Amino acid sequence: MKKSVSLFIVASLLVFSGIALAADKPAGQRLKFEDCDKNNKGSLTFEEAKACWPNLDRKTFDAIDANQDGTITKEKLKANRERHAKAGQKME
């Protein structure tokens, strides 16, 4: 259980920080949320997020999408990161 929570935290932090790379970006260049939000709606569908962060899986996306409206926003990413940071502190 601790291992899966840790992996989930790492995946969430990677998504939030924009460390994962898209194929059309030079190696080492970080992508930000805004780089992925091509239509400037302030939210990403699973397909948009997956295009930016190829390692993102549906389970992680759905966990970040707290209200299950099919999108993630910067606010949802931040809330998810904070939830898992607190959970990680309790586990130590």
Short description:
The chain is mainly alpha-helical and 92 residues long.
Draw up the topology in text.
Elements: H1 2-17, H2 33-36, H3 46-52, H4 58-64, H5 74-91
Helix pairs in contact: 1-5
Rounded to the nearest angstrom, the radius of gyration is: 13 Å
* Count of individual domains: 1
Q: Which regions are unreliable across 5 or more consecutive residues at pLDDT < 50?
A: 19-23
Largest β sheet strand count, sense and barrel closure: none
The first-level CATH class is given as Mainly Alpha
CATH architecture: Orthogonal Bundle
Order of helices and strands: HHHHH
* Number of beta-strand segments: 0
- Averaged pLDDT: 78
Structural class: mainly alpha
Key features of this structure:
92 residues, Recoverin, domain 1, 5 helices
Please tell me about this protein's structure.
The protein is mainly α and 92 residues long. It has a single domain (2-91), classed as Orthogonal Bundle (Recoverin, domain 1). Helix content is 57%, strand content 0%. The chain contains 5 helices and no strands. The protein has helices at residues 2-17, 33-36, 46-52, 58-64, 74-91. 16% of the residues are buried.
